[in-house]
Specification:
Methyltransferase, Methionine Synthase (B12-binding Domains), Chain A, domain 1; 5-stranded parallel beta sheet; alpha/beta; two-stranded antiparallel sheet
Length: 376
Amino acid sequence: MTVDGGNQEQWAQTAMFTASEVETQTGVPAATLRQWERRYGFPRPVRDANGYRLYSPGDVRDIGIMLEHQRRGVGAKLAAELTLRGVAVGHAGKPPPVPVPQRAPHRPPMDVPGLAHALAQALIAADNTRAGDLLAEAHAQLPVEEVMTHVMSPALVEIGALWAGGEITIAHERAASHYLRSRLSALMEIAGGEEGQGGSFGPLVVAACAPGEQHELGLMMLTMALRRRGVRVAYLGANVPLGDLTTFAHERQAQAILLGVNGEWALQGWVAGDWNGKSWVADTSSPEDPLTHAAGKGRVLNGAGRASASRTPILQRLGLPVFLGGALMNARPELAAELGGIYAGPDATVATAIISEALDHASQAVPDSGQKPTPN
């Protein structure tokens, strides 16, 4: 019996904890829980009316058993099998009692700016072991989105500033970027490819860097944040031509495009064109430079400097809503509307909320589409 007179077994199987609450109790990231669920059929959360995963105290107990097996050197697959069979480490094959939820242990406030600076210094020194320890410390106390927004991103900004000031070489910057790209790639894989948190249903967003844009780390961060929120994202990477991006997005029946734009170099020489409902039709007669605007009028000029105010903004011709993010958009958010897109916001957390809300509104506007709702 429980303290309130209820049945212990019924209470153990009552779904009551969200993924974030389980992450706080066990230290296992929500993305890892989803990966275990897909690969091993464990844990077994239920879904509420809105599609959110809810875990029972029994699930929390079993997650602890799985972790203990792994701490003893058992591989993940075998640890899952032992857990499903009820074999608990240190309990003679009997499952331990269902844990009573407790408050997470108190930790002193984390010096997040100091952590970001330390990460930058470790990456500059090519001390990947130190960098890994710092990121592990951050992940232990912060949600993944905050680690990206408040630790990784400031470290990259600091490294970029040092390179711009001539204090480090491009080799230092490239090595640091490569390390963080590998970490983000691993996190994106854990987040479930295009499946997102909610499974294989829900809206699809195609994410790519604008033509000429090679800096993809910010877009990778946003892709992972969206997947963790339940949005399916097809990630295409750096330097994708608009025509190819548009064709791919329509072939996949995507609901939106996410475009990363970090510098003016990524707005030079875009090939104009239109989606005619069936294919991309390039307009080679009047190549456009969407960064060149009529002074004070907001009109886009073509490559020869002639005003083309009568033309629809280039991104409105793609046949899908286009969200714009990146350093250039943060510095000049008004550019998004001038290009015919939607400013996604200054960081991954804000952008995730903006894009998710827009997709939710779009899906609600088409009730007969057959799509299942996407959980937040």
